[in-house]
């Protein structure tokens, strides 16, 4: 079904609640495993209906953040999703205490019950009002970023439309673009601070109500982290600092030499080559057509998926005024349909949309056989393996988009992924510090951010951009506002994705087909097992192992050193 034909109707929370309460009561009083199983299916059908309407409302809102009807529907779900979560909470409590738990575990696996148990630890009906406020603040942040109207070179641009100018080969244009871009954040910094202040205090209060020491514990439970903990994450950050940060510094030095600058300034970091970054050689429509050829050839499974997405208008990738400044993939369970949202702007990121977000969407499509949200939607660190690995598994088709600049793109892409890791763990350490110190001032938060930047990204030089020099860069990062503790998931997944790069691309030796097979199987398993178990079953090593990061950093460094980047 085409997206435009998918029926949206605002669910009546009172009717939905009554239906959920009755089904939960019936489940508790079931006389047999068969009866309990049938009622579980009905409960999850109600959940899928509600969640699908919520997703459609969010898609509509992010497509036009100024549309009053869409704003009203988003507000409705901001208010009522926490109320619905209360019914789901009651379902989870009934599930874990079911008289037929052994039989249900035999059919669905114990992980469904592990997920139910950690959800119970992360929710209480005492949090409903706080969660409503949290949702509204997240929507407020998204709308504030989408409101950007920046006058530049005689045009009125949003943040996404301004980004290509930050990659200009003309340094003066880059400088002007950066100043204009960050002026928007500087001008609105107090409002960004106010939103974040409210979120931090709110989340701290929520953790107190749940009898947690601070929000870190509640945040980990909300992220459904079961097979690793805060100490393991801290060790992971140390390993990134030990092995990846020196490599990233080396790459930045090489970059400065390539673009002919003695010192790499902040407005230089996104320009990889003096001749200009690799860019796709056609329009967004042309890119989508080339994408079909790529996924047709990659595998029968990806061909079927891409045809489904394009035939049903489930890829909304063209930039326009009013669209939210973001990229995402959502899953509309009622219609078993992934949906991709982005803003193509003529940079190489347009292609990573076609691989990264399509990696998410492919997993959702491959997991659509699961009726339960807990299995169709994996936890975030697993989900990011699907997206980031697809970026590498499609390397053999990058010539379709970049033509003579294909090698330039691959070199740049791998560089950027290495350079991301220090930033990613910086975001994570910053958030841990924030929620350990919830009462600090906005100025103290910014000062701490800048300290961490100097630790993880010592190459950064902000010149005279005072807003950035005083620690304001984090206000651009939506995850910090909307999804606390999410960002480390990208880093964990990137170490896993590098392993797919190593197996399928760099040291393939005929291993591409096996790596692809493991990837396809990983996607089809969705979230049916914990993160580290899925990693192992995909033939990958745990990203928490120091030697894995050490080995990959050396392999990537050797590859980059083998490339004569002066030819680019």
What distinguishing features does this structure have?
single chain; mainly alpha; two-stranded antiparallel sheet; 25 helices; 5 strands
Terminal-residue CA separation: 45 Å
Any low-confidence stretches, pLDDT <50, length ≥5? none
Overall average pLDDT: 95
Strand order of the largest sheet: 3-5-4
**How do the helices and strands follow one another from N- to C-terminus?**
HHHHHHEEHHHHHHHEEEHHHHHHHHHHHH
**Number of helices in the DSSP assignment:** 25
Q: Given the helix and strand composition, which structural class is it?
A: mainly alpha
Give a short account of the largest sheet: 3 strands, mixed
Radius of gyration: 23 Å
Helix content: 55-70%
Q: Percent of residues in beta strands?
A: under 5%
Question: Outline of this structure?
Answer:
This protein has 568 residues and is mostly helical. The protein contains 25 helices and five strands.
């Amino acid at each position: 079904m085409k997206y435009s034909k998918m029926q949206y109707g605002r669910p009546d929370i009172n009717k939905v609640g009554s239906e959920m309460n009755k089904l939960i009561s019936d489940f508790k009083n079931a006389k047999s495993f068969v009866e309990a199983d049938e009622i579980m299916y009905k409960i999850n059908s109600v959940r899928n209906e509600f969640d699908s309407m919520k997703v459609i409302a969010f898609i509509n809102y992010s497509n036009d953040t100024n549309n009053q009807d869409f704003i009203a529907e988003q507000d409705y779900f901001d208010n009522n999703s926490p109320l619905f979560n209360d019914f789901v909470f009651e379902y989870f409590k009934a599930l874990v205490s079911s008289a037929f738990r052994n039989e249900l575990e035999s059919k669905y696996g114990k992980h469904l019950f592990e997920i139910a148990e950690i959800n119970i630890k992360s929710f209480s009906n005492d949090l409903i009002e706080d969660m409503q406020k949290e949702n509204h603040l997240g929507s407020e942040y998204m709308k504030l970023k989408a409101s950007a109207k920046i006058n530049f070179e005689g045009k009125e641009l949003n943040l996404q439309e301004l980004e290509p100018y930050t990659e200009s080969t003309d340094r003066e244009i880059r400088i002007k673009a950066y100043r204009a871009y960050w002026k928007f954040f500087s001008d609105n910094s107090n409002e960004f601070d106010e939103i974040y202040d409210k979120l931090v205090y709110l989340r701290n209060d929520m953790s107190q109500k749940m009898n947690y020491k601070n929000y870190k514990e509640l945040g980990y439970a909300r992220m459904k982290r079961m097979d690793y903990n805060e100490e393991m994450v801290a060790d992971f950050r140390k390993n990134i600092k030990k092995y990846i940060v020196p490599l990233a510094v080396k790459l930045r030095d090489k970059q400065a030499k390539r673009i002919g600058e003695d010192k790499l300034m902040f407005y230089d970091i996104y320009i990889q080559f003096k001749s200009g970054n690799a860019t796709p050689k056609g329009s967004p429509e042309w890119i989508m057509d080339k994408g079909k050829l790529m996924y047709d050839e990659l595998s029968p499974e990806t061909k079927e998926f891409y045809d489904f997405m394009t035939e049903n208008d489930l890829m909304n990738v063209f930039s326009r005024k009013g669209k939210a400044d973001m990229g995402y993939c959502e899953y509309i369970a009622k219609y078993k349909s992934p949906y991709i949202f982005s803003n193509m702007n003529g940079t190489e990121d347009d292609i990573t949309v076609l691989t990264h977000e399509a990696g998410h969407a492919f997993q959702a499509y491959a997991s659509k056989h699961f009726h339960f949200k807990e299995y169709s939607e994996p936890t975030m660190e697993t989900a990011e393996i699907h997206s980031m690995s697809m970026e590498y598994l499609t390397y053999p088709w990058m010539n379709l988009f970049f033509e003579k600049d294909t090698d330039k793109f691959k070199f740049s892409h791998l560089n950027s992924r290495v350079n991301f890791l220090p930033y990613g763990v910086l975001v994570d350490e910053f958030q841990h510090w924030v929620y350990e110190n919830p009462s600090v001032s906005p100025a103290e938060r910014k000062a701490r951010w800048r300290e961490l930047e100097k630790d993880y990204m010592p190459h950064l030089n902000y010149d005279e951009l005072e807003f950035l020099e005083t620690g304001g860069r984090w206000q651009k990062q939506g995850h910090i506002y909307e999804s606390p503790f999410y960002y480390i998931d990208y880093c964990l997944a990137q170490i896993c994705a590098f392993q797919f790069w190593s197996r399928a691309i760099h040291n393939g030796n005929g291993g591409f087909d096996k790596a692809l097979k493991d990837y396809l199987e990983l996607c089809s398993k969705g979230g049916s097992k914990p993160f580290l178990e899925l990693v192992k079953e995909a033939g990958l090593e745990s990203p928490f192992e120091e030697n894995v990061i050490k080995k990959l950093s050396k392999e990537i460094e050797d590859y980059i050193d083998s490339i004569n980047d002066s030819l680019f």
